[in-house]
Specification:
Blueprint lengths: L1 H17 L3 H15 L13 E12 L7 H6 L7 H9 L2 E7 L4 H7 L10 E6 L3 E19 L2 E21 L3 E22 L10 E12 L5 E5 L3 E7 L7 H6 E3 L6 E12 L29 H7 L9
Length: about 325
Amino acid sequence: MTRKILALVLATTAVAGCSLRGTDLRRGSTSAVMERIGIGSGGRVIEPKRCALKMVILPRPLRDKAVDSAVWATADEQVIAPEARRALEANGLRVGVITGGLPAEVESALNAPPPNKVDPAEFNLPDGDNTLVSLAEATPLATVILTRDGRASGKDYKDVSGFFRVTASHDGPTGVGLRIAPEIHHGPIQRRFDALPNSAGAMNTMQFGVKDGQQEETFRDLVAALTLQPGQIAVVGCDPDRRGSLGGYLFTQPEANSDRIIQKVLLIWASRSNPGEPGSQPKPPADLVPVEPPDLTGPARKDESASANPKAEGPKK
């Protein structure tokens, strides 16, 4: 009895296995799976958008041609809205966009051998995310003159460092939008509790995370917004004639073990690591046509059977 039951089970399994042809298996692994997750036959998988940034801080002696005259003779500062540009200029900041290659003086400075070699920093950010760029190293005390609405006022900071917060997001079919905001971090390191976003499934609950850091002052009225297209470079620097300004604090500082003043410029390259707009990715050649592979698991064709066993049909009369 046991052998009969076992034979019956094996026979049933064999019949079920033979009923699944290769075409059915392929269809089950693509169309059926896509339909189960809500993607139709003409759908496509949507990947998260990301932005790739490359940044270089180029330090040179004060009023060196590479960071002063040459770079700004090439950069277009009109990409910043007039009101924002006037606010930046009043505080010693300059922002522009270079289209095409960099000036020869800048290229030479970027490719300088050690000890003047400059290493770029690279970031791959989710769409709409930001990163901090350190410009001014920590000092015990700094006085910054801020100009707002035509009025200038000085402010003292203790244990102070200077940064730019760069936010990147997709803009149009191929562009990357940048928001560049100056920040000053100052004061003693303190522990505080910051609210965290609610996790999936957590309803009406507030979660907190512990964060240690200094007080952060972001100058939102001095944000520079621009869009970089392929082949363009953002340039951020200062007007060295406005001494004591926010731009002067961020981009000029004494050289270590020297009486020389160093002037800096920030260069930003941006690209989309996953272009999300239709038509922005390269298309395959038009002469390539998808072909359904042959059914290898179905019944053998007559000519295949004959070639596999030439004696099966017997001699012809």
